[in-house]
Amino acid sequence: MKLRVLGCSGGIGGRDQRTTALLVDDDVLIDAGTGVGDLEFEELVRIDHIFVTHAHLDHIAMIPLLVDTVGEARSMPIVVHATAETLRILRSHIFNWLVWPDFSSIPDRHNPFLCFQEMRVDEVAKLGRGRFMKALPALHTVPAVAYQLSGEGGSLVFSGDTAYSEPLIAAINEIPDLRYLLVETAFPDALHDLALASRHLCPSLLALFLERIKSNPEVWITHLKPSRARTTLEEIAGYCGRFSPKALYNGLELTL
After folding, report:
1. Do you know which Gene3D superfamilies this protein is assigned to (predicted)?
2. What percentage of residues in the chain have a pLDDT greater than 70?
3. What's the pTM?
4. What is the 3-state secondary structure (H, E, C) of the chain?
5. pLDDT tens digits, 227-240
6. What are the domain boundaries of the chain?
């Protein structure tokens, strides 16, 4: 099983700045930010599942365009998995016939291009081929989850957008085969108060978070704000510890 980074930036600007989207093999997305737009049509058609961490635009922007682009070329609907709160936001504010058509009723409700599947924290979705996706607790300004992706080669955790979260740390510490931890750090320490208010991590909060992790996964940093990325990474590197976090980048492939 392979996970390919399509987008991991906290903003846009230039070819390297795409918002959050991770492609699992060729048929599963974790979030669907602007990075999805770099896929070819033939790749888009193969996407069967989208697991959404939360409803903010940088994580869901390409869902409406993806469904509109490939709906008629597929024999089955694309399934969007998310918490009940996130699905309610998508239905009410995106697929509402005002911002975008409701593709869960196009061409009709019995044969839609899109369907929604509620996913609760701790629930596990079976994806076939020995792949599993589990929702983990996260803490953000809107209802949010992290995801644990598991296969024969171990597990990966993607934090999504989150503040320091004891429940998320506890969930991570229960994973015996954790190989990769993809964790957000949006702001430098100079914007510590903004990080707290917007429920994101900054380097000092990331250090506290990582100190509580009992295993030794590879740590990759995501959701860096483009204008502050270099400073944020320098501050992360300055914290002592057993981890040496690296910046996630578009095109990176991780294998499980």
Report:
1. Ribonuclease Z/Hydroxyacylglutathione hydrolase-like
2. 100
3. 0.97
4. CEEEEEECECCCCCCCCCECEEEECCCEEEEECHHHHHCCHHHHHCCCEEECCCCCHHHHCCHHHHHHHHHHHCCCCEEEEECHHHHHHHHHHCCCCCCCCCHHHCCCCCCCCEEEEECCCCCEEEEECCEEEEEEECCCCCCCEEEEEEECCEEEEECCCCCCCHHHHHHHHCCCCEEEEEEECCCCHHHHHHHHHHCCCCHHHHHHHHHCCCCCCEEEEECECHHHHHHHHHHHHHCCCCCCCEECCCCCEEEC
5. 999 999 999 999 86
6. 2-254
